[in-house]
Amino acid sequence: MKDSRLMRLLALLLALAMIAAACGSDDPVESATDDGGTDTAETDTGTDDEPADEPDEEPDSSEGDVEDVGNVEVDEEAANCASDVELEVGDYSPSGNADVGMGFILTGGFNPHNNQAPAAFAYYGWLYEGLVRQDPGTGGIVPWLAKCFEISDAGDQITFFLHEGVTFHDGEPFNAAAVVSNIEFIKTAGPPEVLPPVAGQMAAVDSVEAVDDLTVQFNLNSPAAALVLSGLIRNSGFMVSPASLGNAAATPAGTGPYAMDSENADHTDINLVSFADYWQPQMVGLETVNIQGGLSPQVRLDGLIAGEYDIATINNNEQELVPGYSADISVRIGFVVADWLGEQVPALANKDVRCALAGTLNREGIVGQVGQVPESAIKQFAVSSSDYAYVDDLDSPDFDIEAAKALFDSTGVDPSEMVWSNGHLPGGFWPITASAFAGGMAELGVTMNNEALDPPGAGEMFARLARAQHPLQIVAYNEPNALMSLIARTGEGGLNPSKVSPDGVVELVNAAKSKSFEDGEADVAAAWKIMVEECIFIINHALFTTIGFQDYVTGVDHIQGVPVSFWPHGVRVDG
Amino acid sequence: MAKYIGFRLLATIPLLFAIAVVTFLIAVAMEANGSIAGQVCGEGATTECILEIEESLGLNDPLPTRFVSWLGDVLSGDLGVSLLDRNASVNELISERIWPSLSIVGLSLIIGISLGMLMGVVAAIRPGGLVDRTFSVAAASVIAAPGFLIGMMLAWGIGVELGWLSPVGYTSPSESITGWFKSLILPSIALGMPTLAIVQRQLRSSMANSLQSRYILAARARGVGRATLIGRHALPNAMVPTITVIGFRAASAIGLTTAIEIVFGIRGMGEMLVSAILNRNVTVLQGGMLVVGLVVSTVNLLVDISYGFLNPKVRLNK
Lengths: 575, 318
Hints:
Distance between the termini of chain B: 9 Å
Radius of gyration of chain B: 24 Å
CATH superfamily of the domain at 91-273 in chain B: MetI-like
Oligomer: heterodimer
Number of helices of chain B: 13
């Protein structure tokens, strides 16, 4: 009898559960995602140690300039053809090499059509670009190889208007015909040339036609413009040369700022070279790039500190390795940039020499020991001496010129034969510190070609970083002038849409000069912030020039600083 | 001697065959543990893709057929292609990876054997003396410490803190001979330290015994000089058991290099095999294990042959 009651109770519970399940499955959002075929939860199939792709936050439902597209948004203002701004083309003047240490390996090769691992986007960004991209700052979809695009009122047609003068690495022109070839290939080739999820990103595209040489129209089989645009910021959107299509194993030619030079068999040692015919030549900052993949976190960190890598990715699950990291950061990018433009300055490799020189930044020390700084300069930026955290932290509160000279002597380099050239940021951005540094250098007998911002400015920057006054997701090791050197590497007006450096900085400094003693600190902070933002922009472009990296990186603009005591203050040996 | 070497060479053949069988069975076991074809086709794999890959890899054939086919390819020098990148041949991958590993193992053996022998002989001259006891304590400490720990300490101390040598990476000799040698020093020391300690202990023990033998006493009575006594009479006899130990160390160093390669960010065979296991890249794993097995067999063969040179009784027995 008891068994019978129990059975009835269980049957009732089962029936209720089935009803509840049936009701719960009717989720329109879920259905739409499934039908759309845009696989937003790509799975990392390699040995990648990047965090898996996480769903973005709930989209903002408010109407405005931004239209929801699946889990990304279209920046309508940027996409609007009516507000199209003429493209500025600068000079092509790349310089230097960057050694990059990465954790993940491009296990499936360098072909975006048949390697869909999200981590691979960090590699693709150097070589490939799409019609649209995800804006690093806002996360919205903005035009890239397309100047602008229009979506029909019904949402079943997208027309892209392409930039002129874009070429692939193999010399083929990028035009409407190339776009048609790419999309048709993605839709029809099948595996292994095109993996099903990649083809699925274009499932809603019925046909693509070239209206004219620079206009291409996507005809959709449903009002799914949003989903197609969402697909175009992923693998299917990378445009490769039509001549490269059809060889899944080879590295296709893209339009990106860097081209493949050589790589080893398992894609763990990749050499890229700057693309001279890049359509935005001023954005090509580095001449060559070497990417080492598959490195353990400790190796990346050790290599970064020792100067083997200029840039190394340290993922959020690896942060415990680095003192000073907090748990709420997604990805960190650390820098080691050699002195100035990558040239070694042997005498300055000595930590104590640097400490002594850093002492010049202490205003009391400047006045008391160097005595060359004009009073007006001291008043220029009323930063408390306690702000110069690294002076105290490095146990060198006073500038001991004799000790510095002795240390120079111990390196075997005659300071009088040393020229510290500096043409990075003309003008005295922080005249007090620049003057002090120049004074210190003069005391040591080092010729300084011009009085410039870099060492003291960057020193100040890092002092503030260390104090977490300006949270930033950049960690610099080894060289206090790392970020400024990076700006310098990109050349004047390089990766610099805001023209902050040098013109903007000079303007800012001039504005600051005209202000009172009391306003100085705020102006320094503002100028500093702009420079950091500039650096972030450069990093975004230099590292991950194009689409998709933001799929799993939430940004590079919210980091805390690193304790100054952690600076190893070495210098890379190979320059 | 030629007969002895020939016999040893023949004895290597069944060993290599056994290695081939074991590597093949490991691949089969990995396959049974999950769909290799699904792995190759990737996320969202279609049935067509899986069937095509299964067909191309011969996964539907009976096991003996597959083994014979695979062995035939191996004997013809074709180890197949990587499952994760069909453009990367396993031969090419191994040819890129094997030199860093062999370089590290080779230099570590040179360091370990030469210093270990020197320290062993010095310690054996005065057993129980200060030098002997110091070396014994040091050797015991090194043996107790895992190689990767020594590697991490060297990378941090000498590479990062002092900045004397690079803590990471490998420079190919084609790029720079000096750079190549520099890139090998730290990993080789890390890998060679246990060899040094073991060789030192073994040689110290056998050398001490030899020095107390009657033939040494007789030689000394005949007025043979100390250097000759040690170098020509005691050392060759003491080396026979030491060679056995060196053989074991050489074989295990090839395995232990995996941890060292990971610590120093060197892309060698060990790192490749670990990566292949993690990615279930069966063809790379098979090829890699086979080549490692071949190297270990060769080392064993060389050790056996060296017995013949050092001890005539060995080659006479064969």
